[in-house]
Amino acid sequence: MDLLRAIGFCFLGVVVPLGALLASNPSGIAQWLSELFGAEVTRAALGIGFLALAAICLKIDLTIRRRAQAAKAKLA
């Protein structure tokens, strides 16, 4: 559990698979999202969205890590 907390739950569960998917076929995903939302989605917009998602996941992971460290500090 400590290893998963150190690496980050959100990073492993969201950012890595989504990054692999975007790296494998960015144009296809951009086209699919354009059709889904009815507005043009470019590869640049996908990159910006991915970076924003990575920042949110990093914030979540840091919060989880800080809470775990605080709990360990109380036990010591």
Biggest sheet: strands, sense, closure? none
Number of helices: 4
Number of strands: 0
- Taking the alpha carbons of the first and last residues, their distance comes to 18 Å
Strand content: under 5%
Per the principal axes of the C-alpha atoms, what is the gross shape? elongated
What does this structure look like?
The protein has four helices and no strands. With 76 residues, it is an all-alpha fold. The chain has one domain (2-75). α2 packs antiparallel against α4. The mean pLDDT is 87.
Characteristic terms for this protein:
4 helices; elongated; mainly alpha; 0% strand; 76 residues
Task: Give the SSE map.
Layout: H1 2-7, H2 9-24, H3 26-37, H4 43-75
Helix pairs in contact: 2-4
Brief synopsis:
With 76 residues, the protein is an all-alpha fold.
